[in-house]
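User: Please predict the structure of the protein below. I'd like the answer in structure-token form so I can feed it into my own downstream comparison script.

Assistant: Understood. Taking the following sequence of 242 residues as input:
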Amino acid sequence: MNPPAAGTHAAIDPASVDAAITSRMSVRAFLPRPVPRETIAHLLEVASRAPSGTNTQPWKVYVLQGASRDGLVDKVCAAHDAGRADPALAAARKPAYDYYPTNWVSPYIDRRRENGWGLYGLLGITKGDKDKMHAQHQRNFRFFDAPVGIMVTIDKVLGRGSLVDCGMFLQNIMVAARGHGLDTCPQAAWVDYTDIVLPHIGAGEGEMLVCGMSLGYADPDDKVNGFHTPRETVASFTRWLD
């Protein structure tokens, strides 16, 4: 794939671009159908056109399939179960970075609760049902049965701006995937198990796990994929300055 020549910006069908963006959702149930390696490589190549400060291109990508994927699933699920059996083990876990705030305030805590209970309500998980909550949370560490798992890291020497760069790179993957009939689920849950993930994927000592991602073909018959999160209106988050 070659970038467009300087000064050439051909018109692109806006409906197709909008559809790729708006049809993206966090899929939580995938089919076992494999994804060709060349397709994954193409998505990563397209995504690499993401902007980054001074073109640092800070992302490092690890693609897990087959035995490597299954091995990581087994390790992290075992650690997740152990943490439930012994809360002290779970409390001792330190995430790679503070993805979520220490102190939640409105409106963010309200949206978080709406999201959580909306999903759990669809799945018939009631408040206090710790067994089902644990099982559903562990679906993250099974990549929601997707055949492809992706881990993205950056070097620890880089600043917080590189996390913004990685976010744009990840969004490119997710949007490009839609153009190939694929779906994704970006997952911050993996950062709690960075001590397991990084050695498993062979990351260097100076790398920090940004997030994981599930990639595959969505299961259209699983009701969990009928869950669509709401979005605030443009008027609610925009201030026009003339």
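That's the full token string. Strands lie at 60-64, 148-155, 183-187, 207-216.
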